Amino acid sequence: MKRIFASALVAAALAASAPFVAQQAQAGAAPLQPGTYALDSAHTLVRFTVDHLGISDFFGTFPGATGTLAIDPRNLAAAKVDVSVPVARVSTTNATLDGELVSADWFDAARYPTMRFVSTKVVKTGADTADIAGDLTLHGVTRPVTLKAHFKAAAVNPMNKAYTLGFNAEGVIRRSEFGVTKYVPMVSDETELSITAAFEKQAD
């Protein structure tokens, strides 16, 4: 009986997902619709990773990002990305550390509440990859940064019916260049950024 019940659940799950899979397959034939997109804050996350005392890697996340993407697959070089991240929402699952990170010793969120990336150049590097150069403003300092982006998927979100693009991106910064110098080099200056982002198409 348990096996029959489990099989039924699997079959039901596959049947429920079939329309979504079909939409993804259909989107694959024309993977990018041109237009203006808004960042889906609920399904976008920025993660940072540092080396902690040479013993272990340690990471935290920034939820709540907002922003826009303007893109035309026929002219990818003209794509524009503008994303802002609320620094005060940093989360490491350690409440004491979170309080330290938003203090003046680290991100100083009271004075600099937002981290912002604005693209300046997009260079296609593969069938579904691109280098996105831009200006990153953090802790009141603006410096050039290049993100290596990977286009993951395009599909109609089965929950809200919005046509959505999914991307992953990675980059590396030196936090000291932005004035965040606490505990360098015990906590590494080099900071890895990992981003997963969803953009929903807006009405023309």
Automatic annotation (TrEMBL):
<dbReference type="Pfam" id="PF04264">
    <property type="entry name" value="YceI"/>
</dbReference>
<keyword id="KW-0732">Signal</keyword>
<dbReference type="InterPro" id="IPR007372">
    <property type="entry name" value="Lipid/polyisoprenoid-bd_YceI"/>
</dbReference>
<dbReference type="InterPro" id="IPR036761">
    <property type="entry name" value="TTHA0802/YceI-like_sf"/>
</dbReference>
<protein>
    <submittedName>
        <fullName>YceI family protein</fullName>
    </submittedName>
</protein>
<feature type="signal peptide">
    <location>
        <begin position="1"/>
        <end position="22"/>
    </location>
</feature>
<feature type="domain" description="Lipid/polyisoprenoid-binding YceI-like">
    <location>
        <begin position="36"/>
        <end position="200"/>
    </location>
</feature>
